[in-house]
Amino acid sequence: MDFTLSEERKMLQETVGKFFNSNYKNINKRSENVNLPEGYSKEFWKESSDLGVISALVSPKFGGLGGSGEDISIIFELVGKSLCVEPFLSSAVLSSTVLSSISNPRNDLITDIIEGNLLISFAHCEMNNRYEDHYIETNAYLKNDEWNINGTKSFVMNGDDASKIIVSARINGDVNDRDGIGLFLVNNDQTFKRPYNTIDGYRSTELTFENLKGELLAKDENALKCIIKANSAGALALSAEALGIMQICFDLTLDYLKTRKQFGKSIGAFQSIQHRMVDMMLEIEQVKSAVMLASSTFETDDLTRDKNISAAKNLVGRVGKLIAEETIQLHGGIAMTWEYSAAHYAKRLIMIDHLMGDSDYHRDRFKFLSGF
Amino acid sequence: MVIKMNFEYSEKDENFRKEVKDWLNETLPKSLSEKVKKYQRLTKEDYEIFMNNLTAKGWLAWHWPKEYGGTGWNAIEKHIFEEEIIKASAPRIVPFGVNMLGPVLIEFGTEEQKNYYLPRILSNEDWWAQGYSEPGAGSDLASLKTTAFDKGDHYLVNGQKTWTTLGHHADKIFCLVKTDLNAKPQLGISFLLIDMDTPGVEVKPIITLDGEHEVNEVWFTNVKVPKKNIVGKENEGWTYAKYLLTFERTGIAGVPYSKSALNHLKMISKRSLKNGKPLIEDPIFSSEIAELEIDLLAMEIFNLRTVSAAAEGKAPGMESSLLKIKGTLVRQKTTELLRKALGPQALPYLPEQFDEGWNEMPVGPDYAGPIAKQYFNMRKISIYGGSNEIQKNIVAKASFGL
């Protein structure tokens, strides 16, 4: 067994880490990016591309330089540590996963994504489909050899700034059928957009389509497989992001416990507080282990991949709540303030459990995939 | 000995409940309760409308003895009153003047102070703020550093208070200040009343993690405070501060808040879909709701036992601390399950939604907007008013003899 990173990956971690740190210097810098018209820094996104960060998320088979589970985890742990709001998840992971998993992979589009010239968002969520991969109300029908798409997609990350959108839509069958789903590529200039920021500072959009023309990318079994793979890749990325956030939360809290003095000593001197820090440390090690396992089996068969990713994301949901709440409670009032970074880390950590399946969803999926 | 227990309210209590309910129905403006229900930002005037109504009815000083203009209610009546105003979605009664300072002045104030300040509290002429916490004195309140030096006819005050709730509306602030630097921490503290418009007082907003402005820093730079503004004796302020902190607070468990949140949770769980079916039909999620309801059920009886003992004149001791701990945990759990029930619908955050008169289409169902914000905001309740850790210290010290 060997649980250490290869020399190449260590270098990737170091280079990207330095680059993120130099751009995301502090929480005010992040707020500046959040408040830009697109909800993120286009400049930073372009620089990320130039440095090869996006390429590191895509397999060499499709023109990238990475794309393994470990690569995704390394990059997203760093995304978490800096609380980056750029479209790493929406465009670089979700959309590129779909475009590389369809029967005729679209290397042309993936290359544009890697080079930072094209932003594509993945529009699968709907107001009522919670975290399901097949429950789809948006529909598509064929008329005069053209696909027409109607419906509304919700919580589309970076759906306002993306120039193209991948849309999941129902071609036939019932809203809850696993068959009859299609994936379409549409231009985003003809959609109705309602952009907003999420409570943790990320740009999201409601997208409505009225007889919008789309290009069919995949249908039926292949389409569902692509959706599941994209959602699993997203859940893995978010799990690694959460791990990065947890480590920062732990460090900030420990640092505060050492410097904050009450009753004539540092509050970290109290044994009851020390025990709570040990609980946090222990659970973070658990998360780290689950993320490592999920990363290592990302390229194996679908069942093993999804089972281990569900295990990681379920644990991340449960431990994330513990770490976010304890970080605030052990700090006290100071972590309730906007000015202090811990509040923003805690918010993101909690809201990660509202993306790509919460702890309950992944517990159920783990049970199903394990044949309970 | 056979004890016959009775868990019912008496007819007299029920009549009282109806009286409170009817009065709220008649006098509380619908537009105001709607704002409270939607978690919209309340203006100073919003609070004042409700408090002036209470003044007119003679119910504002519900904790005070009758001879000072209070209601003279017993603990059960106070409990019913508090339950009904929360159920009616009234703005909260700003507690700093009427519920905190009032009882201290009644107990320890001079006749002159009582005659001057109490009527002004009763008429809502003065908006008070609380000047206790400091950046270096939170859980360890006695380590406060704001100083007040005797300069003959006045005290000269320097220092900084923090977490001053609604201090940006306040006309006056009661402060704990250090008057003897050489005494042991708890012995050199005095209780001082300060006009906010005195030169040298400055209020700075603190924006909380939900982006809202409710708390403030209050800075004092060479502020001259007349000597007559001291409450009780110099260097004995800690006694009065403790009296204020342990002052009978029937509502400490927040039972009515949790009850209304639980109802809200059940409604949302019926409307949220999981795989096309109502979430409440999910056996695991509904079990979580059931266990929360069981906790709340037990806590309500725990609270009533304490209230009932208080009505018979027994001062609650460690029960207040235990109820504070459990009450905050249960209330936080309601906000957690509400957030979970929404799924991804908890993500969108439209700050303008909390402005008065906002009537655009929300993103998602109309109940979704405030849920995540409320979850994060409610992290404060296990921190303020003596953190849950401090409450545990109090209970352990007072009851175990270890």
Question: What do these coordinates show?
Answer:
- The complex is a heterodimer of chains A (372) and B (402).
- Chain A has three domains: 7-114, Butyryl-Coa Dehydrogenase, subunit A, domain 1, CATH 1.10.540; 120-219, Butyryl-CoA Dehydrogenase, subunit A, domain 2 (Beta Barrel); 225-369, Butyryl-CoA Dehydrogenase, subunit A, domain 3.
- The model of chain A has no long low-confidence stretch (mean pLDDT 96).
- Chain A has helices at residues 7-23, 27-34, 42-51, 69-82, 88-101, 107-114, 220-259, 271-296, 302-331, 341-351, 359-369; strands spanning 120-123, 139-143, 146-157, 164-170, 181-187, 192-197, 203-219, 261-262, 265-266.
- Chain A is built from eleven helices and nine strands.
- By secondary structure, chain A is of the alpha+beta class.
- The radius of gyration of chain B is 22 Å and the shape is globular.
- In chain B, helix 8 runs antiparallel to helix 9 (283-311), helix 10 runs antiparallel to helix 11 and helix 10 packs antiparallel against helix 12.
- Chain B is 44% helix and 14% strand.
- Chain B has twelve helices and ten strands.
- With 402 residues, chain B is an alpha+beta fold.
- In chain B, strands 1-4-5-8 form a four-stranded mixed sheet.
- The model of chain B has no long low-confidence stretch (mean pLDDT 93).
- Chain B folds into three domains: 11-93, no CATH class; 128-246, Butyryl-CoA Dehydrogenase, subunit A, domain 2 (Beta Barrel); 255-399, Butyryl-CoA Dehydrogenase, subunit A, domain 3 (Up-down Bundle), CATH 1.20.140.
- At the A-B interface, strand 6, strand 8, helix 9 and helix 10 of A face strand 9, helix 10, helix 11 and helix 12 of B.
